[in-house]
Specification:
By secondary structure, the protein is of the alpha+beta class. The chain has two domains: 137 residues, no CATH class; 118 residues, no CATH class. It has eleven helices and six strands. The strands form two sheets. The protein has a four-stranded antiparallel sheet with strand order 3-4-5-6, with helices on one face. Strands 1-2 form a two-stranded antiparallel sheet. The longest helix is centred in the middle third of the chain and has 32 residues. The chain is globular and about 60 Å long. The termini are far apart. 30% of the residues are buried. The C terminus is likely disordered.
Amino acid sequence: MANDAGTLELVLQEVGGALATLQSVLQSDQFAGLLSNLGIDHPPDLSGDTMFTAKLAAAVDSAGTVGDNLETLAVAADEGSLSDVATAGGILLGSFGEVMGALDDVATDLARAASGFPDVVALSSTFSERVVEEVLTNYLEAAHPLTERVLRLLGIIERTAIPIVEQGEDSFIIRRRLFFSRLPTLFTDPVSVINMPYHWGTDQFDETPLIQNTEDLLDELGQEVLGTDNQGVILTGGLDDDASSPPQLDVLSAVVTKSSDSPPGLELDLGTDIGTDQQANPR
């Protein structure tokens, strides 16, 4: 008998869907790219370290178990009883713990395998949490883009585009952070949370992510919006073609840019003189 999914079941399905992607994220030939996404500018190639790749393989297997248990939960929800759903949900939840244990094993051995790379060793202390942040934000961006954009605008998710040169071509990588610690404060002091990524009200105010995040949200909502820098080049992932040229946000005929005040803020140029050159048409 099919059952309507409850809140807990939905949460388990969404978290499970994100953790299941570790099957590809933790492949040994993809690991250097993962380290790059987590903030390592020059990640080492650890694919030749058999002890470390065995830890990765074990974590991949754990993520595969999550995927299998997700399917079991889906079948129980469609065809089983409430008891079947509860049992499948409990098994799925248990597999989350197994994945976290496998990630901790990878983190511990990462400090050994990358002992000659101080930045990687430093990352190993928070590796498990950072990997979970990475797969959750990627999953939200792909499966629930509106939710991801709202959380990004509010400062719960931060997304930064880092310029790189790849095979002689200019490109960029995306680095993401998911700040669970900011969620409780969002409900008690939302202004302080929203200020964290933008530094609003200070001389360090950074309008670029604010404009980019606003553009992305409006675009997801289907609004006519175009984020550009003042050279007329469309922003891509938060990149500006000239660091000395502050970005601007074009919404219909309105243009939002950084103000010259101290501390700086935003200023709005409507781009149209209302009531100056136009007369009302008589009825």
